[in-house]
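Predict the holo structure. Ligand: 3-acetylpyridine adenine dinucleotide.
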Amino acid sequence: MTSQAKINVKTRRVKVAIVGGGFGGMCMAIKLREAGIDDFVLLEKGNGMGGTWYHNSYPGAACDVQSHMYSFSFEGNPDWSHRYSGQQEIHNYIEGVSQKHNLRQFTRFNAEVTGAHFDDQAALWTLNLADGSQVVCQHWVLASGPLHVPSFPNFKGMDSFKGKIIHSALWDQDYDMAGKKVVSIGTGASAIQYVPHVAKEAGHLTVVQRTPPWIIPRDERAYSGLSKWVFRRFPALRKLHRLRLYLSNEARVLPIFNPRLAKLAEPALKAFINYQVKDKETARKLVPNYTLGCKRILISNNYYPTFNRDNVELVTEGVKEIRENSVVFSDGTEQQADCIVLGTGFIVDPRIYMKDFEITGLPGRRLQDDWKDAAQAYLGTTVSGYPNMFQLVGPNTGLGHNSIIFMIESQVRYVMDAITKLDKRGDAWLDVKQDVQDRFNDKLQDELKGTVWQNGGCMSWYQQADGRNTALWPHATFQFMARTWTVNMKDYNWQPAIEKVS
Ligand code: N01
């Protein structure tokens, strides 16, 4: 029986299926349309476009990359209100881009993909969806991003808590914190953004810190009406502004390779803490004990001053247990709580968050098995044994210093080149050679050894439990762009179309 014969009535057949409607999936869809390929579907598990920027709506949610950089190069927006935009403004931008390119017409919302299986006889992928339907496609692009499955800590007694528990990525807009006793756990990028806002609402806020982050001042400013007019009237000047921001961000890559350089900036940042926090003991607790850059460097002007408020307390003891109405710390102290806010981040290891997402490739290949030791891909985009499957922001393409949209655009260009070359050759699939992928990853891991992420004296979400960094690209972003500019034919096995084989 051919695989076509197995297709049920709920099956849709397309050339390309995209999984995820965030910046990555949208970019892919736009570039397919520009290439004249309308035979695709975008599958989004949520009910709107924007991915991270659709789901993360906690108070104070904003981007710590400048707006003119954190937007598509081909969809510049002269009207950004501030150097750094809030979630709502970014989401409005996303909606505008989506409308301009008619992306909704190609999108199925509430469409959660639960598995993907390759049929090498038909040279087709079948994607299974949670509602029981299937999509059959020649290519599929996994654009779900690494930061979409919230991580819930498993504290003793957590189930017995009678109050409200809110995760930063699943904010309950209807819950009123006014006058409540709130315990917030975690001090990462999300927490430092919502803490100042929660502090203003809550009766009492306890901030539980396991590891202090390094925080640099936010060079925030509003764009004047004149700047916006100039950017609108002279797009070249807007592009120049973007280039300037790009280069200043890119310069941050230097301390990553030279932790001693990073150390030089630490005294100034300690002074920043002492300047902003009145209580000396609290200020001391807020100083990190690892090298700047080892964990993501955060930016804020209003996080530290929050600790000058009478209703805010910093706790550095670990959480021992949670009771019906309180949180107990490792030193035995107990804090009454109406609400616990979890700023505890995301499950970022794809081997864990994709454990129920079965992917099978060429005969005998299962991604969970192939990634048993570590998630690996070639250029973060293709995986040997999984023909015509592409990932955006896959292994080792994350950034600690610049806009991820730059990486996404590079990857999408690469995927488009792969699809175009395959079509031109009339082949059925392309599959990256295993030795090419292995050499790429061995070299990458060697290069990571000298970086602040491995030598900076911290553990971060950039690393797997064994310390291996499968999250970040350890070079300048233009080096990634150069590597992904075109698909090198020699890196891949090209499978002639089925008709030619028989
Ligand atoms: O998550 P995180 P996040 N007990 O993993 C603590 C992006 N982002 O949501 O450091 C006690 O960074 C944990 O402590 P420790 C950005 O890429 C971007 O804040 O592991 N504490 C840490 O303090 C970012 O990196 C923007 O010791 C526990 C915190 O929880 C990524 O999202 C804005 C704990 C988790 O921090 C994730 O950021 C927001 C436990 N059991 C987010 N478990 C932009 O502006 C965890 N923690 C673009």
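Confidence is low (pLDDT under 50) at residues 1-5. The pocket of 3-acetylpyridine adenine dinucleotide is lined by residues 62-64, 147, 153, 168, 185-191, 210-211, 296, 319, 343-346, 461 (CB under 6 Å).
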